[in-house]
Amino acid sequence: MSELVTRVNSEKSFTKARRRAFFQRILGFLGKEEPGELLSFDEVRHKLPIRGQHYAGVQVIPIDRIVGSVGRYHDFNRAFMPLNPSLRERWRRIYTAAHSQEGFPPIEVYQIGEVYFVRDGHHRVSVLKALGATHVEAQVIVCDCPVPLSPDVQPDELRLKEEYAIFLERTGLDRIRPDQRIEFSIPGQYIKLEEHIAVHRYFLGLREKREIPYEEAVAHWYDEVYMPIVRIIREENILEKFPGRTEADLYLWIVEHHYFLREAYGREVPFEEAAIHFAENYGHRPFFRRLLDELMDTFSRGGSRDET
Fold it and tell me: What is the band of 287 on the pLDDT scale with cuts at 50, 70, 90?
């Protein structure tokens, strides 16, 4: 390809990429699915505990797992289409380099969980994305963080991630049970889990007539209270009836529903019965969805009622 043709194509490609970014933004305004914003690495680092980092060498990584940036998250959208017209000249030079024999060096990224944040190489990612590439060579620095990040994470979810990090820091659950994954779809819920653990610790101490170490109480609550209810949710496919919600959401609602049923019937109610009753009465039905939202709002302001 001649230099002139490459230069012309680079201009056309940049214009096309900018047009795509524009229409993606319009789709967002119309409520349609669109790529969204890049995450700010500095904001993520501020909200989530980074316990250390190490260099993991040069790797070939999926471009669709690059969700954030160090310092340039306003210049590109999540699809790495350019948002700023001032990027034109640099973008075109990278496009030309991509079609040369020399190519260009690996980009540099930070990795947190399943996702990557570009430290150096934003234009390279943008050009490769526009050319249809699915992977890119990168120097990877892995950040050790107890809170998982997945490729679909959005900026407004960082508050939930921050609350999750605080919960793990206070309870040590990620050290005690490394396979745990307790995530909510609404804020303000982790404090209730801490209340559940405290109540469970109290009653466990009465039953065993001894002071229960906090970490032992956390492990016992997770193994004997939380996970049995989660297993019921999975076995009965209850989550399917509540789109957009999580197992942790349902755990709290089922525990609260269990309390109401116990009060209404005047007898002990198995959690499996409470879970099925909750799903049958509140899942997939518009009226009950509205009621569930009201309950959810009430629960977010209230606390636990009894032993869990």
Answer: very low
Domain encompassing residue 127? 3-144
> Is residue 140 located within the same domain as residue 159?
no
Over residues 92-110, the pLDDT tens digits come to: 888 888 888 777 899 999 9
Q: How many domains would you assign to the chain?
A: 2
In sign, the C-alpha dihedral spanning 92, 98, 99, 102 is: positive
Same domain, 109 and 169: no
Question: pLDDT for 222-273, tens place per residue?
Answer: 999 999 999 999 998 999 989 889 999 999 999 988 888 888 777 887 888 8
Query: Which contacts (CB < 8 Å, 24+ apart) does range 247-251 have?
Result: 247/182, 248/182, 248/183, 248/184, 248/189, 248/193, 249/184, 249/185, 249/186, 249/189, 249/296, 250/275, 250/278, 251/226
CA distances from 48 to 44, 51, 178 (A): 6, 9, 17
Percent over 90 (pLDDT), the chain: 49
